[in-house]
Design a protein that fits this description.
Layout (H helix, E strand, L loop, with lengths): L11 H21 L2 H12 L7 E7 L5 E7 L8
Antiparallel strand pairs: 1-2
Length: 80
C-alpha cells in the first residue's frame, strides 16, 4: 500500500474534501453524545497524548466477555 501522499488515484482537492466531510461527521456524532459520554471519550483520547505511559490489560472471562482496560502511569508503563 502506498503512503497517502503518493497515492495517485485521489487528488489533493478530493482528499481534502473527504477529510473535511469526515471531520464534520465526527463532530456531529460527538455533539449528539451525552455529556458523560463526551467526557469519557475525551478521557480516552487524552490517554494517547503520551502512549509510552499507557498500560493495557485485556481480559476474557469464562462467558466470553472481553474487557480492555487502559490506564495511564505517570512514570512510564509497560504494555501487555
Amino acid at each position: 500500500m502506498q503512503p497517502p501522499d503518493e497515492n495517485p488515484t485521489i487528488g489533493a482537492p478530493l482528499r481534502e474534501e473527504l477529510v473535511d466531510a469526515l471531520a464534520d461527521t465526527v463532530l456531529d456524532v460527538v455533539a449528539r453524545l451525552s455529556p458523560v459520554t463526551r467526557l469519557r471519550l475525551l478521557a480516552f483520547m487524552h490517554l494517547f497524548e503520551k502512549p509510552e505511559t499507557i498500560r493495557a490489560d485485556l481480559s476474557i472471562d469464562a462467558s466470553g466477555t472481553v474487557r480492555l482496560t487502559l490506564a495511564q502511569h505517570p512514570g512510564g508503563g509497560t504494555q501487555h
